[in-house]
Structures are given as structure tokens and as C-alpha cells.
Automatic annotation (TrEMBL):
Residues 740-767, 1072-1128, 1455-1507 form a coiled coil. PANTHER family: CILIA- AND FLAGELLA-ASSOCIATED PROTEIN 43, CILIA- AND FLAGELLA-ASSOCIATED PROTEIN 43-RELATED. The keyword Iron-sulfur does not apply. This is Cilia- and flagella-associated protein 43. The lineage of its organism: Eukaryota, Metazoa, Ecdysozoa, Arthropoda, Hexapoda. It is found in: Cytoplasm, Cytoskeleton, Cilium axoneme. One of its GO terms (cellular component) is axoneme. Keywords: Cell projection, Coiled coil, Cytoplasm, Cytoskeleton, Repeat, WD repeat. The keyword Cytoplasm applies.
Length: 1581
């Protein structure tokens, strides 16, 4: 293999991934083996590979540190390692490795600045806390959420809270990390969570959690207060497509609802119960998937499903602004090269958009949507032309022109098929195009016909099988070969084809195809590829990892394997891409292997652009010379790698000898050819073919019909001739059968079908008979008493007996399958289960066993009292208090032995079972007693039916005699002879008669056929025969009955018939007289017979009705007895059930106590003991920390003494001067961090004078300040030399290190005390829980003891009485009288009726009062009117007319012509009316105009009012903003800050001036001292 260097040039992430913040300026995203870093300021993207020993195998589960530019990454393999890196150097800080092997991790997150939390995958789903600085795990906890898709997030500030969200089942759990020195623990937080499905969560800075359900409802989970507050209530009720997202922002929350509306809510006050206020909202067309808060910039970053990353930030105007940061991440599903455009590559994204990228830089050049033609399923590029072709799910084939890569366009489209097309491929030289449907086995060929300038659909090939792949070879301008890789086995379609069908096609005027041969392949292939030579084929078998090179021989008659070599891939299903210089193989293992096309065994390069855990490589392409390889992963990522070879390029050129004259214009077609409407090309071809065949077959059809008519006419004539011949010469009809073979064939088929149906029916009948015999053997034959019913005559009453099994054959199967309560036996399953449970209950706790003695004593006391009462009572009282009425029906000595007062309250199961068997035998005796009564009644009904049958026959006989002799129609009701019903015959259920087989089922009751009637008819015939034979034998000697004599007619004398009455003789007269006397006597006898018949009918009717009524009354009495006996049986059964239930209740109570002790009390006590041990261990640690803190404080104080000891030989003034520098600390940056890791690292850096990459900026500033203090100032006294200064700096650094250690110990001690306080509270809560559970256990034991002490008594009360709970004192019931329920109901009804009558009388009285008042008022009104009229009459009568008045009235003109005056007045009135009408119309017009003006002004006023309201609301909002206390506080704080800054500046300047003056004075003082005390110098000789 040649040595080569692989360089990743660019990459496009596919599916949208989660991102994390790395420091302040970057976000990171991981996919496969790549991690992408995006700078938020410069928008520059940086891609790093993680595929070596140093960085690990793949990258996943990124987590960003909250304060420094640090991130963690997890490998994509079994038992992965977690690596911690610094950004941007990518320097590895540490590596976290578990000693035990695990399957992998699901999510990671930093908890504060100290710890890293990770969540493992199945089977344990453990939360692991790592100390990331050292890579050691310090705590582990198994979680209860078992989803394979989970996320964990940590709160940004202490305390360290962890939220675990299961994405699949939307469950949420919260945990907390507690630290005490080096001991770290994780415990579950029992927070109050909503009952809905949680889909999103976000931590606040205060340690609370916002959660949202799938409908967009948002809650705030207050962890410390353990409360749940509603923030937003959504109006969505249906399950949305997109999930809502919540993000914490500026002490509020941003909610992204399922409709992609982004809304910001903020709390108006510190009270959590106050409603959240709507601040702003913005809509977007992005489908948002992830949202996170950028704590450093106070902004929100959102990630959409289409790959856009955009930021939402609000300026001072509080208006949200959206800024797209990155928009080039979308899932890609296809990758292909572009011929003649080697500097570009094309892809197809998830939205069916054609994307063209620059090969070297990955820059997007153009984008074209193909979705309107249907979902794109496959794309292929032309081997020599810049053209692409795609096939879609709607059956379209699209040709795309890519001559201008910046402006691709669709220049041709074929609607070929009504179903999907999933495979498209050009021929070897690109002149033909094949499109196929793999499932249906149809393939279309597009190309140019002979002597045509444009392409068209040449035709199609349809095979019976699955098309895996195909290859097209051009032979000449009018002939080509097609090799179709197929299989006819449906189960083999998933692994490819094992046969190659070779078709020879002629491209002439008519498209002709011919299957030349079928070649069997030794192994199945999924795809075949063209090799470097024209007839070479490359492929990889589906179930192998070898690369096969095959060659077509014998003019496409055979395919020969020429070479086979290992592909060097680790997994099967390998793909191939072939160029003129290179062969590239790729597969699920993520590897790409580049080989030389001329020498397959020469491997040029092997590299892994995609990780195997994400599906590896889906497709890969190469540049013409193989230096650039672009691959598409199954996760949608596109990666471009460059191969650098040490040797120079060889002369590699593409051979295009056969396609030099081929252009894109050759693939255009006439638009009129595609104007087919909604039908596809195939549908049009089939329709045209059917139409042509129909038109071609019309003449043939007409001629066939004419011939058929002639044949029918001839046959009819021959049949007529045949019928006219003699029988001997006549031919059989079958001779004229023209289709004898077909008829015989149909007859044979019918016979075979008949035999098959007969066989099936016989088998079905045999199975039914077998089933019937089994049922009869299991359920019917063991019955000693068969189930039977007894109906009254008239079917008004139905009584059933009790079916009984023989005593020796009580089967469990019958007990389980019997559904009625008559035969329920409890001596099997119930008792066996009770025995098992009693055996299990022997293993109870000691708490219960200690109190069994008290229970037994209390029970013995109650039992003794009941037994004493039973002894003192007489026999009647004992039977009354027994609770059963069995003694009324049978006599049994066991009633006394099983008396309920003699039964102990607490009995063992064996005693209960023995008593149960005795009571069950009594139940059986009661049933047998009733069955005896039932049989007697059945025999009575048999006698009644027999008598009724005889009487009905007598009635019918009498009625027929009256009809025959006297022509009297006796009015008889339709009397139906009573017979036995179906359910009254026990064997009728299992007996099937022949006449019942084909009878249809009827609703209601089935009546059996009266076989006795048939026997009766036979009996009548037999009796008539005997009678005739007897008469013939006796020859008239038998004595006749009186009825027969009465029926005989007296012969009429001949004289009455033959003679005239005037010619009668004396003899004739005597004969006539005798005839008359006989007739009179016969008439009297007949009248007597008629009266007897009529009386007999009445009597028989009465007797029949009386017998039937008597039987029915007896049956009703038996029904009453059945009810009473059933009551006695149920009383016995209730006694059994009560005993079993009481025992079951006691056993369950003991088990509940034991279970409560084992499941709740014991774990609570163990938890309390564990917490006590934990608290004791933590107290020891806290005390050790306190001792350590005191020691460090003392050591810190000893540093000053050590400082002076180091300068013991130096003058005091110099020591003081150095001490002042010793006390100095960095002024600009103080060490404010509380992280133990950072403090420890700072202390190490201070003492060693080193730098650290893991420290935040404030710590680095502190170290820079220390370095600045170490530099010697210029104004130092000359006595302080560099050695003294270095010693002072070293001691100062030791002092600073000690101070940092003291601070670190103080922080550690504070955390330990806080943890200890938490566990102490938890211990107190656990103690309280244990105390509560012990109280609950005592209550359960007392309740069980009380239940055992109480004795239940069963009483049989009279009808109408009920049992009520006893209240008050028993002496209150001393004078109580029992009243029947019917009496109470009757009294209530009487009270109700009396109340109704009273109300009716009251209503009637009120109505009468109203009527009287009305009459009185009318009377007073009439009286007053009469008085007024009388007063007026009196005035008129007293008025006197004078003479002048009389003359005026006589001569007045008004009274002369009143009609004329009236007409004038009418005319004037009409004139005035018209004038005023005109005025009114004028005023109405003015009013209408005024209304229009008013409406217009009203609209203007409303508009102005609305504007005023808007302005007022804006003004009010501005005023509120001006009056906002936060704003005032902000302005005040700014003013104070500015004043403080100014004051600080002045003070600094003043301090610097004072310091300089001080130094000058100090130097002057030193000079004066030297003058006062001169320094003596040693003079050398």
C-alpha cells in the first residue's frame, strides 16, 4: 500500500445535533469522528477529527465548562473514555476511565467548576460524578429511567442539581450532588413535578427548573420550596408535530410553542403566585429543535431541524432581533459527481433540494428544489455530460442541466409510471437511460430512436421478479444489451439478486426486446458496476467481504469471475465507485479504501471519514484524478478529504471516444410528446395498445358471431330431424354436443369438488360427534340428577330442579366451568390457596407473634360468653339464633354441632374445612329434598296432562256430534292440548332427531313434535279396524249403544211417498200414525242426547279448567317452597363464605402487617441507620476540617515571624520596608473564586511561578498581578539588593499560598457543614418517617385485634325487616316496637295523599278569595258610577233655558247647512295635511343627511379615540418605564458608580501623590539618618 496523507478539507453536518457552549465565544457540535467549533464573533468554523489514539475513537456527548474554554468529549465505542480538552489549543487536561467496562454514555454535563456528571447507557443507566481535574469518579447512582435516549443538565450555580429527562417516555428526575471534603454523594430530590409528559426543561440561576409538556404548558419547579407554579397555560389540545421548548432568560422564560412562536414571559413581582407577564413575542418559520441560553452574552441560541443556528437578542428598546449565525446543516441523502464540472460536487438534501458545492472549499454554489415532482428516490449523473437524472416516488424521471453550476435547471421530464421508480442508471457510454421499479420488476428505457434527433421513451421491460440492479451496453446505433440482476425468491430480495437476465434490444421503429439467456451467479449481489474495460463488471457479494472482478464473454452469453480479492472492510454490504483511474470501496464500517483501477490489489489509501456506530459511509465519489474524495455518511454528513501522494501524478485522461458527439440537446424532447394529462406514459401505451387490438378484432368478432349463428341454426334443424325419427333410429342428445371434452372436464371437476366437499363434511361431522361425546362424558354422564324444568300449563311459572353430581365424582373441572351458583364447591382451589397462604403466613414478623397471645385471650373470653348463652337457651331459641332455616325442611343432627355460637372466633383452616364439608352435605340434602318434591309434581303433571288430553278429546267428540246431528256450531275456544316443553325433557338437550337436523332455529321456546299424536292416529286406525272386524264376526248380535240408537233414522213409509193422502187405507193410516209416534219419540231422545252433549261440554270444560288451575296452584306453592329452600341453601352457603372470608381477612391482615413491616418499616429503619452512619462519618470529616483550618490559620500567622527571621541581620528599617512590600497583594484583580480546584491550581502556580491553561480570567489576572509585584520598583532604597528582594518575593508567595490554602479550607469546610446539615435534616425526616410507620403498624395491629375480638352473628329476619347499625345505648330499644315495612309505606302514602288534598283545598280557597275580591271591586265601581250619573241627571233636570237662548238656538245658521261646512273643513284639512307632509319629507331628508354626517364623524372620532388610547397606553408604558423602580435603581446605581469611580480616581491620584511624597520624605529621612549616624567603612591596606 502506498503511503499517503489524508487531509479533511471541509465538512457538512447532516442531521441537526445538539450544541454546547465552549467558553464565551464558541459553540461546539459533534458528529461521528468530527467536532465542529463555530466562533460566534467571526462566524468562522473549525473542524477537528477525533480518530486517533491521542484523541480517541469518535466524538459524542459534548459538554462545555461553565467558566473556562473547556469541553469534554466521549468516544464512540465499547467502554469509552471521557477526555477533557482546552479550547482552542485542544490540549488534553485529563481522561476519565472507569475500571469496570460499560456499554457507553448517553449524556454529559459539568456540575459547577469541580465536577463532570455522566449518564451511562443500558443496563444500569448510572449517574457518575467525576473529578475532572484528576479523572477519578467520586460517586455513582443507578437511575430508574431506562430510555436509550436521555439528556442530563446541571444547574449553573450551586447547589449542584441535575435534571434527567427521558426523551422516549418523557419522564423527569432530579438529583443533587453533595460534597463533604473528598466525599461526594448523589441523592434523588423528591420534587413536585406535573403529571403531564415532560418534553423540555431549563435551569434558572436560582436553582429552579422550568418544565414544559407536549402541549406547551409551562411550570416552574421550586426545588427548595418543593412547590409547583404554573407559568403558561396552552390552548393546544391535540398532539402537535413539534415539541415545545423552554429556555431561561433574564429572570424570565422564553417559550417556543409547537407553532414555532417564540414568546418571552417575566414575573412581575417576587411572589411566585403572581401571574407571569407577557413581554414580547415573535413568529418564525423555523422548526426549532434545541434552545439554550448564552450566559456570557445574555442571549438565546436556537437550533432548527433544517440546520440553522440563530440568535435572539434584545437591545435597549426591548424588541427581539433574530440573527442567523450558521445555516448550512441539513441531512443529505444522496451524493453524486458532475461530469465536465470536476471542481463541483452535487448532493440531495432531506427536503429534496439539489445542492451544488465547490469541491475544494465546500461553498454552496446553487440550490434547486425537486420536491414538486415528488419525493426523489435515486439520482445518477451522466458519465460524460454535465447532466443529472432523478426518479421520484410519483413515477417521474427528471433531467437536469448543470452546464451552469450556478444556475441548474430542469430541461426535460418524463411521467413514466403510476407507481414509484427507485432505480436510475445511464448506459456505459451515456447514450441510453434505464429507470426501474425494483418491487414490480418493470424497467423503462429512454433514448433516441433511429433517425431521430431527440430522445423519447423507447419502451419497457417487465420481468417476473425483483430487480436488484441493471447494466446497459451499447453495441451499435440500433442495438444494445441490458443485463438485469434479479431474483424470483421474495425472501432473497433483501440481499440482492442471484440471476442475470440478458436482453437484446433493437432500437428500430418498433422497440423489440428478446431475452437471450439467464445466467446464474454463485453468490447474490446487491449492485453491479462497470469496470475499467468495456466488458468488465465489478461487484461485492451481499454475504461476503470480497471484491469480485467479472468479465462478459461469448457475446453476452456468460459472465466469468476473473479476480477475487479481500476488500479489507470489516463489515458486509460494501459499495463501489469507479473512475478511470481509481476504484473506491466504502461500507458500514466507515472505511474508504482507494485502489488503482488498473491494478486492483494496489491499495492507495485507507481512511475513515465516518464512524461505524452511525452507519458508516452511504456513498462516496472521487475527482477524476482521485486526489479529492467526498463521502456521504448514513447520518447525513458530507465530508471532503484530500489524498496527498508522495509520487507525482501520472498521465490520467478520461476516454470519451464514443461520446464526443453527444450533447445535452440530444436529451431534449418535443413538448407535445409529454402532453399526456394526468396519465403516465405506460398508461397511455397500454390504452393505445388496447384500442388498436380492439379495432383490429372488430371484423374478426363480427365474422365469429355470424359463424356461430349459422352453427346454432344447423343444430336446431338437426335436432328437429332427430326428434321426428323413430325411437330406434333417434340419436342421443349428447351426439350433438360440440364441446364434449370441455363438458366432460367440467363434470369431472364438479365430481372432484363434490367428493372433496363430502370428505370435508364427513370430517366435520366426525369432529362434532367426538366433541359431543366428550362433552357428554365429562358433563352429562356424571350427573346423578339431570337438569330439568317444570312449567305450569300456560307457561306462567317455571321451576327448575337442582342438578346433582354423584358424591364420588365431584370434579374440579365441573367446579371451575359451572357458571351458576347451584353447584359452587369451595373445597378445592379456595382451600388449597388458603392452605398455601396460611403456610406462608407462618413466616411473620416477631411483632405480630408477640401479640397473638392477647388475641387468643380476648377470643376465648368472647367464645365462653357465647357458649354460656347457648347452654342457657332452649331448643327453639337455639334454632332461631342458628342463622339458618334448614331445620324446617330436613332433620339433621349436624345443625347443633355447627352452631355459630359454638364456633370459635379464631379457628384453624382444618376446622373450617371440616365444618364446610358438613354444611355442604346439608346443602345437598336440601337440594335432594326439593328434587323429591319436584319429581312428585312432575308425576302430578303427567296425570293432569293425561286427563286433560282425554277431556279435550271428549269435548271435540261432543262438538262434532252436535255439528253432525243437530248442525249446532258449538263455540269452543281454540284449545291446545298441553304437552311437555323442551326444557322439561332432560335428554332433549343431548338427543338430536332426524327431523331436527335441517330445521331452522326459532326465537323463543321450542315446541317438540307431538309424537303421541302420531301414536294416537295409529291407535284410531287400529281401533276402527278392530271394531269393523268385531261387527263382521258377531254378525249383528252385539248390543247397540243408546247413542247409536239415537243416531239411527226411522225409515219413511212407502205410502207417504207413493200414495195420495186421499187414497190412504186404514193400514196406511196406522203405519203413518206409528211412524209419527216413532218420530216424536226419536226427537225426544235426540233432544235429550243434545242436552246431554251440551251439559257434558260445560261440565268437561269446568273440570278441565279446575284441574289445570289446581295443578298451577300446586306448582306455585312448589315455587314458593323452592324460594324458601333456596333461601335455606344460601343461608348455609353464607355461613361457609363468612367463615372462609373471616379466616381470609385475618390471614390478609397478618400478611399486610408483615408486608408493611418488610417493605416499609424495615427499609425506613435501614435508611435511618444509614443516614445516622453517614452523619457520624461526616461529623468526623467536619471536625477534621476544622482542625485543619485552625492549623492553617496558625501556620499563616507564623509566616510573619518567619519573614522577620529571614532578615535577622538586616536593619530594622530595611526589614520594615520589605515587610510593607511583603504585605502587598494584586490590587486590580482579587481572588474571588470559590472553586477548590481553581484555588488549588492558583496556589500551585503562585508557589512555582507557573501558568495554567485551566484557570479562569480572574485567576489568571491574579497571577499576572503577582508577577507584577515580583518586579523590583525603581524607587527602592539602595540597601535593598536583588537577593533581599527575591527572598521577600519567595516569602510573599509562600504567604499568598498559605492564604489561598486557608481560603480553600474555609470553602471546603463550608461545603462540608452544609452537606452535614442536609444529612442531619434528612436523618430527622427519616426518624419521623420511622415513627409514623411504627404508629401505623400499631394501628393495623389494633384493628386486627379488634376484628378478632368481634363475633359476627347471622340472623334470619322476617320479611320486611332490615338490619340497621345499633346506635346509642341498648336501653333505648327497651320499649321499641317492630313495624312492618309495608305499614310504614302505607302510612307514608296516606300522609302524602292527605298533604295533596290539603294543598288542593288551600289553592281552591285562595282562588275563591281572589274571585270575591274582584266582585267586591266591581260592585264598588258600579255603585260610584251610578252615583255620578244620578248627580249629572239631577243637574240637567234643574237647568233652565231662557228665552234668548231659545231664540238663538232657533235662528242659528250653524244648524242650517252643517254638511257644507263639514266639506269645507275637510278640504282645508287636506290642504294643511299635504303642506305639512312636504315639510315632513324635507325635514326627513335633512335628518338623513345629518345622520350620515354624524356616522362619518363618529368613525373619525372612533379612529381618533383608538389612536388616543394607543398613545395613552404607550405614554402609560413609558411612564411606567420611567417610574419603574428597577430603572430608578439602575440610574441611581449608575450615578453612584460614576461618582464612586470619580472619587476613586481622585483618591488614587491623591494616594499616588502621597506615596511619591512619602517616598521622597523617606529617602530624605534616610539621608538625614546617614548624616546623623555616618556609616563606617573598613579600609583595606
Amino acid at each position: 500500500m502506498s503511503s499517503s496523507t489524508i487531509e479533511t478539507r471541509w465538512m457538512k453536518f447532516g442531521k441537526s445535533h445538539d450544541f454546547v457552549f465552549v467558553g464565551k465565544e464558541a459553540i461546539a457540535t459533534a458528529s461521528g469522528i468530527y467536532v465542529s467549533f463555530l466562533d460566534l464573533n467571526t462566524r468562522e468554523r473549525r473542524i477537528e477529527r477525533f480518530d486517533n489514539k491521542e484523541r480517541g475513537d469518535g466524538a459524542s456527548c459534548l459538554a462545555g465548562h461553565p467558566t473556562v474554554s473547556m469541553f469534554s468529549v466521549v468516544e464512540r465505542k465499547h467502554n469509552p473514555k471521557i477526555s477533557i480538552y482546552m479550547y482552542p489549543m485542544l490540549q488534553r487536561i485529563s481522561r476519565c476511565i472507569l475500571p469496570d467496562k460499560i456499554n457507553g454514555y448517553l449524556s454529559c454535563s459539568f456540575a459547577g467548576t469541580e465536577y463532570l456528571v455522566s449518564l451511562t447507557t443500558f443496563p444500569d443507566f448510572q449517574l457518575i460524578v467525576w473529578l475532572w481535574r484528576t479523572g477519578k469518579h467520586v460517586a455513582m447512582l443507578n437511575t430508574k429511567i431506562d430510555n436509550l435516549n436521555q439528556e442530563i443538565y446541571c444547574s449553573p450555580n450551586p447547589p449542584h442539581l441535575i435534571s434527567q429527562l427521558g426523551i422516549d417516555n418523557n419522564t423527569l428526575s432530579i438529583y443533587q450532588v453533595r460534597t463533604c471534603s473528598k466525599i461526594v454523594s448523589i441523592h434523588h430530590v423528591n420534587a413536585l413535578l406535573p403529571e403531564h409528559r415532560i418534553v423540555s426543561s431549563s435551569w434558572t440561576l436560582e436553582g429552579n427548573l422550568f418544565v414544559s409538556d407536549e402541549f406547551g404548558n409551562v411550570w416552574l419547579v421550586a426545588i427548595e420550596a418543593n412547590k409547583l407554579y404554573s407559568v403558561v397555560k396552552s390552548k393546544i389540545r391535540e398532539h402537535p408535530k413539534n415539541k415545545p421548548i423552554v429556555v431561561t432568560h433574564k429572570s424570565g422564560v422564553i417559550v417556543v410553542n409547537p407553532n414555532s412562536e417564540i414568546t418571552f414571559y417575566k414575573k412581575t413581582s417576587a411572589d411566585w403566585n403572581v401571574a407571569w407577564k407577557f413581554i414580547w413575542s415573535i413568529s418564525t418559520f423555523y422548526s426549532i429543535q434545541v434552545g439554550k441560553q448564552h450566559y456570557f452574552k445574555d442571549g438565546i441560541l436556537l437550533h432548527s431541524k433544517n440546520g440553522e443556528i440563530f440568535e435572539i437578542c434584545t437591545q435597549h428598546d426591548n424588541i427581539p432581533h433574530i440573527e442567523v449565525i450558521y445555516a448550512d446543516e441539513i441531512e443529505y441523502k444522496a451524493l453524486f459527481s458532475i461530469s465536465q464540472r470536476t471542481e463541483h460536487v452535487a448532493t440531495l438534501d432531506r427536503l429534496d433540494r439539489l445542492c451544488i458545492f465547490e469541491l475544494l472549499t465546500g461553498k454552496l454554489t446553487a440550490r434547486l428544489s425537486l420536491k414538486h415532482h415528488g419525493e426523489v428516490l435515486h439520482v445518477d449523473s451522466h458519465p460524460t455530460l454535465p447532466m443529472l437524472v432523478s426518479c421520484s416516488a410519483t413515477g417521474n424521471c427528471i433531467l437536469i442541466d448543470v452546464i451552469k453550476v450556478s444556475l441548474p435547471k430542469i430541461f426535460n421530464c418524463f411521467h413514466l409510471y403510476g407507481n414509484l421508480l427507485d432505480k436510475v442508471k445511464f448506459s456505459h457510454h451515456g447514450e441510453l437511460l434505464g429507470i426501474s421499479n425494483s418491487q414490480t420488476g418493470i424497467m423503462f428505457i429512454i433514448g433516441k430512436r433511429c433517425k431521430q434527433q431527440r430522445v423519447n421513451v423507447l419502451g419497457f421491460i417487465e420481468i417476473n421478479g425483483y430487480i436488484a440492479d441493471f447494466l446497459i451496453y451499447e453495441k451499435s446505433y440500433d442495438r444494445f444489451e441490458i443485463l438485469i440482476l434479479t431474483t424470483t425468491i421474495p425472501s432473497m430480495a433483501s440481499i440482492g439478486g442471484n440471476k442475470v437476465i440478458v436482453y437484446t434490444c433493437k432500437n428500430s421503429v418498433e422497440f423489440c426486446t428478446h431475452a437471450v439467456c439467464i445466467i446464474d451467479i454463485s453468490r447474490p449481489f446487491r449492485a453491479l458496476y462497470h469496470g475499467c474495460k468495456p466488458l468488465d463488471i465489478l461487484g461485492v457479494p451481499s454475504l461476503s467481504k470480497q471484491l469480485y472482478k467479472m468479465e462478459i464473454e461469448n457475446n453476452f452469453q456468460d459472465i466469468v469471475l476473473t479476480d477475487a480479492l479481500l476488500s479489507m472492510h470489516q463489515l458486509r454490504n460494501i459499495g463501489i465507485y469507479v473512475t478511470d483511474s481509481r476504484i473506491i470501496t466504502y461500507g458500514y464500517d466507515g472505511l474508504i479504501i482507494v485502489r488503482d483501477n488498473m491494478e486492483l490489489r494496489k491499495v492507495i489509501a485507507i481512511f475513515m471519514p465516518h464512524h461505524r456506530t452511525q452507519g458508516g459511509v452511504k456513498s462516496a465519489i472521487s475527482s477524476p484524478f482521485g486526489e479529492m474524495i467526498v463521502s456521504l455518511g448514513r447520518n447525513g454528513d458530507v465530508v471532503a478529504n484530500r489524498i496527498r501522494l508522495p509520487e507525482t501524478k501520472t498521465n490520467l485522461t478520461e476516454t470519451e471516444t464514443m461520446n464526443m458527439n453527444l450533447t445535452i440537446e440530444d436529451f431534449t424532447s418535443d413538448p407535445n410528446e409529454h402532453d399526456q394529462g394526468k396519465k403516465s406514459w405506460l398508461d397511455n401505451i397500454i390504452a393505445a395498445k388496447l384500442k388498436a387490438e380492439h379495432e383490429e378484432a372488430l371484423p374478426l368478432r363480427a365474422s365469429i358471431l355470424v359463424d356461430l349463428e349459422k352453427i346454432q341454426t344447423q343444430i336446431c334443424e338437426l335436432l328437429d330431424i332427430n326428434e321426428s325419427e323413430s325411437p330406434d333410429a333417434r340419436l342421443p342428445i349428447s351426439t350433438f354436443d360440440l364441446d364434449r371434452e370441455a363438458r366432460q372436464r367440467r363434470i369431472e371437476e364438479a365430481r372432484l369438488e363434490q367428493n372433496k366437499l363430502r370428505q370435508n363434511l364427513e370430517e366435520d361431522c366426525a369432529q362434532r360427534d367426538q366433541m359431543a361425546s366428550n362433552l357428554r362424558e365429562i358433563f352429562w354422564e356424571p350427573l346423578q340428577v339431570k337438569p330439568c324444568a317444570l312449567r305450569s300449563i300456560g307457561n306462567d311459572t317455571i321451576i327448575q330442579n337442582y342438578p346433582l353430581i354423584t358424591s364420588a365424582q365431584k370434579m374440579k373441572g365441573w367446579d371451575r366451568l359451572s357458571s351458576d351458583t347451584d353447584e359452587f364447591l369451595y373445597s378445592y382451589d379456595v382451600y388449597d390457596r388458603s392452605i398455601d397462604e396460611e403456610n406462608d403466613s407462618k413466616q411473620e414478623s416477631t411483632v405480630i407473634s408477640n401479640k397473638e397471645s392477647l388475641t387468643t385471650k380476648a377470643e376465648n373470653k368472647t367464645y365462653q360468653i357465647a357458649k354460656r348463652w347457648h347452654t342457657l337457651a332452649d331448643d327453639g331459641e337455639q334454632l332461631c339464633i342458628s342463622g339458618i332455616t334448614t331445620h324446617k325442611w330436613i332433620k339433621d343432627e349436624s345443625i347443633t354441632s355447627t352452631h355459630q355460637l359454638l364456633t370459635p372466633c379464631v379457628s384453624n383452616l382444618e376446622t373450617i374445612l371440616q365444618k364446610d364439608v358438613i354444611i355442604e352435605n346439608r346443602e345437598r340434602k336440601l337440594k335432594m329434598h326439593f328434587n323429591k318434591l319436584f319429581e312428585e309434581m312432575k308425576r302430578a303433571k303427567e296425570c293432569v296432562l293425561k286427563c286433560a288430553k282425554e277431556r279435550i278429546n271428549r269435548l271435540q267428540y261432543c262438538a262434532s256430534e252436535l255439528k253432525t246431528m243437530f248442525e249446532i256450531n258449538s263455540i269452543l275456544e281454540l284449545i291446545e292440548t298441553p304437552s311437555w316443553n323442551v326444557d322439561e325433557i332432560p335428554d332433549y338437550v343431548i338427543t338430536v332427531k332426524d327431523h331436527e337436523v335441517f330445521e331452522k332455529s326459532r326465537q323463543g321456546e321450542l315446541k317438540i313434535i307431538d309424537e303421541d299424536g302420531e301414536d294416537e292416529n295409529k291407535g284410531k286406525k287400529t281401533s276402527d279396524f278392530y271394531k269393523m272386524a268385531l261387527e263382521k264376526m258377531m254378525d249383528g248380535v252385539l248390543e247397540l249403544k243408546w247413542e247409536d240408537e239415537v243416531k239411527k233414522e226411522i225409515p219413511v213409509p212407502d205410502c207417504l211417498i207413493m200414495k195420495n193422502p186421499s187414497k190412504y187405507t186404514e193400514e196406511d193410516i196406522a203405519i203413518i200414525k206409528s211412524y209419527k209416534s216413532k218420530m216424536q219419540m226419536l226427537q225426544r231422545e235426540q233432544e235429550k242426547y243434545k242436552a246431554i252433549l251440551q251439559a257434558d261440554i260445560v261440565k268437561t270444560k269446568d273440570v278441565l279448567q279446575r284441574d289445570i288451575a289446581a295443578f298451577n296452584d300446586k306448582l306455585k306453592d312448589l315455587e314458593l317452597k323452592k324460594i324458601q329452600i333456596e333461601s335455606a341453601i344460601l343461608q348455609e352457603r353464607l355461613t361457609r363464605l363468612r367463615a372462609i372470608q373471616r379466616h381470609r381477612t385475618m390471614v390478609d391482615g397478618k400478611e399486610k402487617i408483615a408486608r408493611f413491616t418488610d417493605e416499609k418499616l424495615t427499609p425506613a429503619m435501614q435508611e435511618a441507620r444509614r443516614l445516622i452512619e453517614k452523619c457520624n462519618a461526616l461529623e468526623i470529616i467536619v471536625s477534621e476540617l476544622k482542625v485543619r483550618y485552625d492549623n492553617l490559620c496558625k501556620a499563616d500567622k507564623r509566616q510573619e515571624a518567619k519573614f522577620r527571621g529571614e532578615f535577622a541581620e538586616v536593619k530594622q528599617s530595611i526589614v520594615e520596608h520589605l515587610f510593607r512590600h511583603y504585605k502587598k497583594r494584586p490590587k486590580t484583580s482579587r481572588l474571588t473564586t470559590t472553586s477548590i480546584t481553581y484555588l488549588t491550581e492558583v496556589a500551585r502556580c503562585v508557589i512555582n511561578s507557573e501558568k495554567s491553561d485551566i484557570l479562569p480570567h480572574d485567576c489568571l489576572d491574579f497571577l499576572k498581578g503577582m508577577d507584577a509585584l515580583d518586579s523590583m520598583p525603581r524607587n527602592l532604597p539602595p540597601q535593598i539588593n536583588a537577593e533581599y528582594w527575591q527572598i521577600m518575593c519567595r516569602l510573599r508567595r509562600i504567604k499568598v499560598e498559605m492564604e489561598i490554602k486557608v481560603t480553600c479550607c474555609a470553602v471546603e469546610m463550608a461545603e462540608a457543614e452544609q452537606t452535614l446539615s442536609f444529612y442531619q435534616k434528612a436523618m430527622q425526616s427519616a426518624d419521623n418517617a420511622v415513627a409514623c410507620k411504627k404508629i401505623s403498624l400499631d394501628d393495623k395491629e389494633k384493628s386486627l385485634m379488634q376484628f378478632v375480638q368481634e363475633m359476627e352473628i347471622q340472623l334470619v329476619l322476617k320479611m320486611g325487616q332490615i338490619e340497621v347499625p345499633l346506635r346509642g345505648c341498648p336501653s333505648d330499644y327497651a320499649n321499641a316496637v317492630l313495624v312492618m315495612c309495608e305499614e310504614l309505606l302505607r302510612v307514608n302514602d296516606c300522609i302524602v295523599e292527605t298533604g295533596k288534598r290539603k294543598l288542593a283545598a288551600m289553592h281552591k280557597s285562595m282562588h275563591l278569595q281572589k274571585v270575591l275580591s274582584q266582585y267586591e271591586w266591581q260592585y264598588v265601581c258600579a255603585k260610584m258610577t251610578m252615583e255620578d250619573l244620578q248627580r249629572d241627571l239631577k243637574d240637567i233636570q234643574e237647568f233652565k233655558i231662557t228665552r234668548n237662548v231659545l231664540e238663538f238656538l232657533t235662528n242659528s245658521p250653524c244648524s242650517v247647512n252643517l254638511e257644507r261646512d263639514y266639506e269645507k273643513m275637510q278640504v282645508n284639512l287636506r290642504i294643511f295635511r299635504n303642506k305639512f307632509r312636504e315639510l315632513l319629507e324635507l325635514e326627513q331628508a335633512c335628518l338623513k343627511e345629518a345622520k350620515l354626517r354624524v356616522a362619518k364623524w363618529k368613525k373619525k372620532n372612533d379612529k381618533i379615540s383608538q389612536e388616543i388610547k394607543t398613545k395613552s397606553s404607550d405614554v402609560e408604558k413609558r411612564r411606567r418605564l420611567l417610574d419603574d423602580p428597577h430603572r430608578k435603581r439602575d440610574e441611581e446605581s449608575r450615578r453612584i458608580r460614576l461618582a464612586a469611580i470619580a472619587r476613586r480616581t481622585k483618591l488614587v491620584m491623591k494616594a499616588e501623590a502621597n506615596y511619591e511624597q512619602l517616598l521622597i520624605l523617606h529617602a530624605h529621612l534616610e539621608v538625614l539618618k546617614l548624616r546623623t549616624y555616618p556609616t563606617l567603612q573598613f579600609k583595606t591596606a
